[in-house]
Amino acid sequence: MAGDVLSQSEIDALLSALSTGEMSADDIKKEEEAKKVKVYDFKRALRFSKDQIRSLTRIHENFARLLTTFFSAQLRTYVQITVASVDQIPFEEFIRSIPNMTLINVFEVPPLDGNILMEINPNIAYSMLDRLMGGSGSSHSNVDNLTEIETKIMTNLFERSFDNLREAWANIADIDPILNELEVNPQFLQMISPNETVVVISFNSIIGETSGMINICIPHVVLEPIVPNLSVRYWMQSNKADVSPEQTAIIEKRVKQSELEVVAQLGDTDISIEDFLTLQYGDVLQLDQKISDPLTLSVGGIPKFTIQPGTIKKRMAVQIIDSLKGGDDDE
Question: Which residues are in the Flagellar motor switch protein FliN-like C-terminal domain (predicted)?
């Protein structure tokens, strides 16, 4: 029974059967355990793994942030765009899920094949248009009557927004989005087969005081050449910064010019606070090291070498005898 939605009459009948003893809770549990068959719809083939869907989600979460910033600057009002869901469904199901009259951008993404759709809910679309034309951002939702001027204004806005899509996709593919057409009736779209699997990214969008959905529909044929790039392994490799030889030389030069504190330690001793407070000129402190023993040279507070003291041209100096072996050698 898991996954089924019961009507109110079915719920009442079930509660009545339990109360009269016609059916027990154990019977229901046995029925649920026996029914473990998962229905698979071959018309709704799942072409992408959960890992790949998560990668697409991360990409478009970044796109949502970039789009929020872009629309805020263009519309000069409060804008909030967030990813609501990422699903893979048949193209026909996507077409049925959007309004009969809406705003649909159809654009290419060379060098990849196929087209991508960006569907903007009429409430959001006309709120944007009203803001661009100096209004308060109210929505009239008469998207079936777009004039040539309105079409040109909206086309320019979305063409400029494609730079954000290019930036969001940069980690998996270098694309160059090109707007082909602006459509208002989804029934006129004959891009791919109705049963073709598409990935639909839905965004919750708020423009001023108007809210609605923005959907991006990506057919499988578009993503097929770059499916390997959607794996976690690829993302981990691509996140590693490639350092050129020139950059390596600059870093090495700056590291060599860095200054380190070098300390030659003669020895240690412990005294009481009372003795410390009464120290005077001429007092002698006995250290825990003999004169004949080599001293320790610390670099950056870490013991690195054994040394012996001396002078060079009447100036104090030390001569390195050996390096200290231990866990600090690798630092």
Answer: 254-322
Q: What is the DSSP string of 169-219?
A: TTTT-----EEEEEES-GGG--SS-TT-EEEEEEEEEEETTEEEEEEEEEE
The pLDDT tens digits for 6-37 are 666 667 677 777 666 666 656 655 555 555 56
- Taking the CB of residue 303, how many other CB atoms lie within 10 A of it? 15
Question: Where are the chain's structural domains?
Answer: 8-38, 44-238, 258-330
Q: What does CATH list as the number for 258-330?
A: 2.30.330.10
Task: Say which DSSP state 296 is in.
Answer: E
CA angle 52–56–58, rounded 5-degree value: 115
* Structural domain 44-238, CATH architecture: 3-Layer(aba) Sandwich (3.40)
